[in-house]
Amino acid sequence: MAFRGARRLRRAARALVSCVWQCLVAAGAVQMAGETARADAARLLHAPPPGHPERLRPDVPLTALERSLLRDLGLVD
């Protein structure tokens, strides 16, 4: 024989599990959206866009500071 509130307890448990499931689905959707956005950004960021201050220009000589930094890094003799 089941106790008096079994039906109410079962309904509450089902509602709780449903809510937890919906939260997990939403969290998974957010996580997947972040992963696809990160993958798209990685493809696009192989070089700075045209006109960006960090874009390398072979026709402009390095400044004294840039030459000093390269020397400190050991990339230039």
Automatic annotation (TrEMBL):
InterPro entries per the UniProt record, alphabetical: DUF6059 (IPR045701)
The entry's keywords: Signal
Pfam families associated with the record: DUF6059 (PF19534)
Signal peptide: 1-26
Highest taxon of source: Bacteria
Keyword set includes Signal: yes
Protein name stated in the entry: Uncharacterized protein
Organism: Streptomyces gilvifuscus
